[in-house]
Write a structure and sequence with these properties.
This protein has about 240 residues and is mostly helical. It contains ten helices and seven strands.
Length: about 240
């Protein structure tokens, strides 16, 4: 949101020059970061920026039972009186420095998200998650959480809590979404990490086992053979022999 009028400047989206024109005080510009926006302003600018992650859009739609939004679009620099007033409220709260203002800011943030979704949102063409499946944001969060804990034991209850679901509901939804239960998915990702080390390093099998969170080399051998049908030593020799 532009806090003061500004003239001139250029904007590129996905490498293409976009005409922008005048930027009035209170005007709004929405940029999709997936379009790699690049801006040049010959004069100083004064703006208030709001960053809305895609996950926030998906969570909002899921929690409020509304249609999922694929992106936000708005003509460059058009006026938005609602966002202007919300922006001024945010600036006032920040300038006061009141410790209790975080609750207020969180509330304003949700209001801005609701406003942006309803006014600027373009609804996804897909119908959303299938019944019994994880929502897109839940699937992404589950994968991120598991990937960050490849080398440790991940309690199913903790994983379900990350997605705001009960343990049993999460377990069924995860299996329907990914085609395998969480422990199997985690085991396969851990094996992927093992394969990367086998090919890219000269670590011994015992060192690979330790690095990837296995109790010992025997545990690695059992898990690897269960997934790929051969031992890690055999797999490494057969692949490196063709390099």
């Amino acid at each position: 949101m532009h806090l003061r009028a500004n003239h001139g400047g250029r904007l590129w989206l996905s490498g293409r020059l976009i005409p922008t024109g005048k930027r009035p005080s209170g005007g709004v510009t929405i940029l999709d970061l997936e379009q790699d926006p690049i801006a040049f302003f010959p004069n100083p600018i004064d703006v208030l920026q709001f960053y809305i992650p895609r996950m926030a859009l998906e969570e909002f739609a899921y929690e409020n039972h509304t249609a999922a939004v694929s992106t936000l679009k708005w003509p460059h620099c058009e006026m938005d009186a609602t966002l202007r007033h919300l922006g001024i409220a945010v600036l006032s709260a920040i300038q006061r420095g009141d410790p209790t203002s975080k609750i207020f800011l969180d509330s304003i943030g949700q209001t801005i998200l609701a406003h942006a979704t309803s006014i600027y949102g373009e609804v996804q063409t897909s119908s959303g998650p299938k019944p019994g499946h994880l929502a897109p944001w839940q699937a992404r969060r589950a994968k991120e959480f598991l990937s960050a804990n490849l080398c440790g034991n991940v309690p199913l209850a903790a994983l379900a809590a990350e997605c705001n679901l009960s343990t049993s509901h999460f377990a069924h939804a995860f299996r329907r979404t990914f085609g395998s239960p969480p422990h199997r998915w985690l085991m396969e990702r851990r094996i992927d990490a093992v394969k990367d080390l086998l090919l890219a390093t000269h670590l011994s099998l015992a060192e690979v086992a330790s690095t990837c969170g296995y109790a010992d080399q025997s545990a690695l051998n059992r898990s690897f053979k269960r997934v790929l049908g051969e031992s890690p030593g055999q797999w490494r020799r057969s692949r490196k022999g063709h390099q």
